[in-house]
User: Fold Enolase from Natronomonas aquatica.
Amino acid sequence: LVTEVRLRRVLDSRGNPTVEAEVRTEDGGFGRGAAPSGASTGEHEAVEIPVDEAITKARELAVPRLEGQVYAGDQRGVDSALRGADGTSDFSEIGANSAVAISMAAAKAAADVLGVPLYQHLGGAFRGRNFPIPLGNVIGGGEHAADATHIQEFLAAPVGAPSVADAVFANATVHRRIGEILADRGIAAAKGDEGAWAPSIDDSEAFEIVAEAVGAVADEVGFEIGFGLDVAGAELYEDGVYRYGDETKTPDEQREYIAGLIEEYGLVYVEDPLDENDFEGFAELLDRVAPETGARKAGRPLICGDDLFVTNTDRLERGIEAGAGNSILIKPNQIGTLSDTFDAIEVAVENGYAPVVSHRSGETEDTTIAHLAVATDAPFIKTGAVGGERTAKLNELIRIEANA
Ligand code: PGA
Ligand code: ZN
Assistant:
């Protein structure tokens, strides 16, 4: 039985306050979870509210429904208590930030009681054998860095890596190699919110540099490394057109542009190529670039909906109906609880959509998503390439793999 739920404000990677939750149980279980935070958030996401308000409201409304009321191991019970306490569909009352922190802390307390790793509690006895391929953000801009690329993320994708550890190190090597190429070209670059290089260059130069770096590192390590993108199309879309600085593209031009990039660079993954409400556009793009796979057989390239689906089963079902994409980004804080997150993954897998578990641009040391990816056999995890709040997850994957 949950005996205590504590909430406090802690720092996230951008230096903003976020919600941390601790759950204790009567048999000595303890779990701690912290909410991440997005910058290029989708308009249909569950709502993050100011931290102090989220904590006050959760203490007042949610904690009394948890302490002495539910078992930490009854994740559905914990999460429906959170939903009941909130009373809205988007967690705008207690905040998705409080909800997700408590939901994750409860899962960890339950794993602690059982004396098993979190991925095993979440996934059962037979999980922990299939590991996700990490997508590593190596160059980026958009909402994550000022005066950098228009496309938000260029992601190294070490699809041929024999192990998670090899993949993690390959991504870090691509990141380092890009730093060297930028230096050789005399281009100064800081890092964006997710640790990617954020040079002030055209997207076309970024493609050139990333292609060169992944090619060189693939030769070095001896396995296939592709790359992919998070276009974050909703952030570019304004008044019916996609804006790249002074240049604009109509939706048809945007779709053709992305199809051309997939062909030219053999992209293995493209997230949010179009606006967050353009289900038909996602379907047309998938038909255009991967007619042989279709939505029901997740193949290459993955056309992934992040802001399109926001980890929401209703939106995913609408996408399945429309044939929109063949992959869904999974972010627990977009929907607010682990139960809802699992439901989204289940609907995705049943319908041939590849789930890609993801961090947010604002992160903490919390490693829940590493366990979530292993527990659900997710084929990919997107959690950066370098930087402590990113390596917290990557190193946890290395540990899980080493101990499995
Ligand atoms: P966010 O960006 O966490 O700032 O929303 C990540 C993404 O768009 O995938
Ligand atoms: Zn995204």
